[in-house]
Amino acid sequence: MSADASPESTLPGTAAETSPDNPWPLQLLSRKLKAHIERAPAAWIEGQVIELNRRGGNAFLTLRDVDAEISLPASVWSTVLDRQPVPLERGSRVVALVKADFWVKTGRLNMSVKDIRPVGLGDLLARIERLRQALAAEGLFADSRKRKLPLLPHRIGLITGRDSDAKKDVLRNAALRWPAVEFDVREVPVQGNTAVAQIIAALTSLDADPHVDVIVLARGGGALEDLLPFSNEDLVRAVAAASTPVVSAIGHEADRPILDDVADLRASTPTDAAKRIVPDVSEELAVVRQAREHLRRSVGRMVDRETDRLHSLTSRPVLASPDSMVATRADDVARLQQRAHSAVSTALVRSLDQVHHLRAQVRALSPQKTLDRGYAVVQVVGADHAGHTVVSSPGQAPEGTELAIRVAEGRFRAVSSGHGEIAEP
Fold first, then answer.
1. How far apart are the first and last CA of the chain?
2. By the 8 A CB rule, do 262 and 238 touch?
3. Measuring CA to CA, which of 35, 177, 297, 377 is 20 to 30 A from 255?
4. Which of 279, 298, 328 represents a domain boundary (last residue)?
5. Chunked mean pLDDT (size 10), the chain, 425 residues
6. Residue 228 neighbours by CB distance under 10 Å
7. Which pLDDT score, from 0 to 100, does residue 9 have?
8. In Å, how far are 46, 70, 83, 230 from 67, measured between CA atoms?
9. What is the CA radius of gyration of the chain?
């Protein structure tokens, strides 16, 4: 021990400190590797048994990942296998508790199976249900995330198995409904350990193509194990992240992989998917014919209604004889003019009569008229004949007063007699 310890104490403490002049002995590297590997805890893993060989009290098996081309050889004691209620065989899906062991003498790394358990249908269903609930809690299945499919897609991406019945059903039924439909078909494995990776690759490629309007994932029916890729979390998240609407057409009506929940549209079968992604040309033509007939009737009714309206407008007197309105107004103007002329003439005649009447009154009341009736105006002739004073009483004209008398026919002079009598001069 001391011989080993003395040289080891002069060796590099870490692998990074080793050099060509100061290397580690091989046994030192082996012991360090073993110590490092033994510190790693055991882990439960899931896989499919693809090889199983018993050799006495020991057995050797190979596990393969269920979703990738990765295998792992391991050893297991026969006593562990004998505890299984159902003997393991090739193709079995299992979970195993493995622990890494490093053999110092041979430098081999061995995976030792401490416990192994088969995965039954109940376990798979429970696992799928837990994943479904977790994804639903994230909101990946919400209706608000689902996109509406285009009415008439220009190109449809189809991901399906190689020369599968699902592919034929989708292509045939879609062509029967819409003969001009175009497909971009990607044939990939739809079961097995490579299915998920290749389906995701095809989905990513179609989603990046701007000419693809909708993507259909189609597969025929099968056992639960065959449909497991369509409940894979990576695939489900890839579909949720796609920008192109995705249609799930997996299995039959009773099959319900998680892909159905996250897809924008779930079709019960591939045939149903073909019916739902493209319209029926005969139905669409019938709709077009109905729309054209409805449009023709609507236009006809509108034309008839407007024609009747025009007839009603043109039959009105004002449009049938437009000059009648002018003639009516001309008659009104002439009538009003006549009334105005008559009113003015009547007013003039009445006023003229009034003027004649007033003139007669003025004349009747004038001094001349009084004189004409035999009256006379007696005036005392003033001194120097400067002015005359009207005599209104005999006392104003004593005897010998020279008087000027005015009668209707003229004037003459007289001399007062003093007794109210008039004497000739």
1. 211
2. no
3. 177
4. 279
5. 48 88 90 90 90 87 85 90 84 88 90 88 81 92 92 92 90 91 93 88 95 94 81 93 94 83 92 91 90 94 92 78 77 90 91 89 79 81 68 81 83 76 50
6. 21
7. 62
8. 10, 9, 28, 11
9. 67
Of 319, 323, 301, the residue nearest 311 (C-alpha) = 319
Question: Do 178 and 91 reside in the same domain of the chain?
Answer: no
Closest CA to 149 of 279, 289, 47: 279
Tokens of residue 322, six digits: 């437009």
pLDDT at position 415 is 85
Query: In residues, how long is the chain?
Result: 425
Q: Are residues 150 and 275 in the same domain?
A: yes
| Residue 99 and residue 34 share a domain | yes
Q: Which structural domain, as residue segments, surrounds residue 403?
A: 371-423
The verdict on 95 and 130 lying in the same domain is no
Number of domains present in the structure of the chain: 3
* pLDDT number for residue 74: 92
Q: Whole-model pTM above 0.90?
A: no
**71 and 129 assigned to the same domain:** no
Mapping DSSP onto H, E and C, the string for 265-316 reads: EECCCHHHHHHHHCCCHHHHHHHHHHHHHHHHHHHHHHHHHHHHHHHHHHCC
193 plus 233 within the same structural domain: yes
Nearest to 103 by CA among 20, 51, 38, 168: 38
Instruction: State the DSSP H helix or E strand holding residue 38, giving kind and residue range, or none if neither.
Output: helix 26-39
User: Taking a C-beta distance cutoff of 8 angstroms, is the pair 382, 393 a contact?
Assistant: no
> What is the model's pLDDT at position 322?
75
76 and 112 housed in the same domain? yes
Looking at the structure, tell me whether residues 113 and 128 fall in a common domain: no
Q: Considering only CA atoms, which of 273, 266, 268 is closest in space to residue 168? A: 273
CATH code, 202: 3.40.50.261
Alpha carbons 370 and 407: distance in angstroms, whole number: 9
For residue 321, is it within any domain? no
Read off the DSSP letter of residue 42: P
Sheet holding 182-187, edge to edge: 182-187, 155-160, 214-219, 246-250, 265-266
